[in-house]
Amino acid sequence: MKKTERIQQELFFLNGKSQFNLKEVMDEFNISKRTALRDIQELERLGLPIYSEYGRWGGYQILKNSLLPPIYFTEEEILAIFYSLQILNLLKELPFGNSHKNIQKKLLYTFNVEKQERIVQMMDTIQYDGIEQVAVNHNLEQLAGNILKKEIVKINYNRYETQDKVILPSKLTMMNGYWYCIAFDVDKKEWRSYRCDYIENIIIKETDQKVFSPDYLKDSYIFQQSTYRTIPFKVKVSKLGKEKFLRKHFSNMSLKSIKNDDYIIGKFNESELSFLTNYFLGFGEHIKILEPEQLKEAYVNKLHDILDSY
After folding, report:
1. Distances (CA, A) of 256 to 234, 242, 253
2. Residue 85 pLDDT more than 90?
3. Among 177, 195, 182, which Cα is nearest to 251's?
4. In 3D, which of 272, 279, 275 has the Cα closest to residue 264?
5. Which residues, in sequence order, are bridge partners of residue 291?
6. What is the extent of the structural domain holding 267?
7. Beta 163-175 vs 153-157: how paired, if at all?
8. Predicted TM-score (pTM) of this structure
9. Which residues contact 266 (CB under 8 A, 6 or more apart)?
């Protein structure tokens, strides 16, 4: 490990400590006593407020209520940060507004002109052309706040028909251009995924804030995952089919290699048959459904429907 990297890691290691001794640093970073002493001098030079105590291994105290000195980044790390911020531009909306654009501007203007030009050059020549956000939402910040505060809310959900639902939002996730809210349905005691652009009128249930323990929620999620999808499927894929699977797949499926052949295996619920059929249609001639029969039949029927339309 380079010295600059080690000093940075030592800053993280000492974060939150009120005291430490020389041997702790030596053991943690596998360095000699002489190197540890030089590192501590460097940490003091950077502004870490420490003072020494006498002792065989050299005890040290860190002043309370002190801030760690600034974190230093390599040029490669700086470019990686700007690249990551650039990827967020594919999203029309984030749970924390457009703050990433302000962060990008603030960081850029902290560097000299030469460094700014190099960063801009990187952003112009190294780009991520992924799936852009399709639907615009106006509730991500509110949902993110509900999740952090563990608030039960009432929503109007308008996907197929307008329904009132009482949920405990748990996670926000972006998938295939759409934001989804993973939530616990308080009335049904079941986990559901809600597309955020169909969620309207989020109202906090002030008088109905039931408390669900983390263990209860985790156990209920695991139980539902193990009992909801019970129908196994197996699909053989070509090399190109394998590449397509790796670009887009879901949590209920995985890739398995047997000898020289690749297979997509998993389980689904009866209600997901149409969705799974349409998913495999996207593979074209690069798949062959082996089981179950109902999936093969639904797939063939869908192909006939497509042909009949011509």
Report:
1. 10, 10, 10
2. no
3. 182
4. 279
5. 234
6. 229-308
7. antiparallel
8. 0.69
9. 229, 232, 233, 252, 253, 254
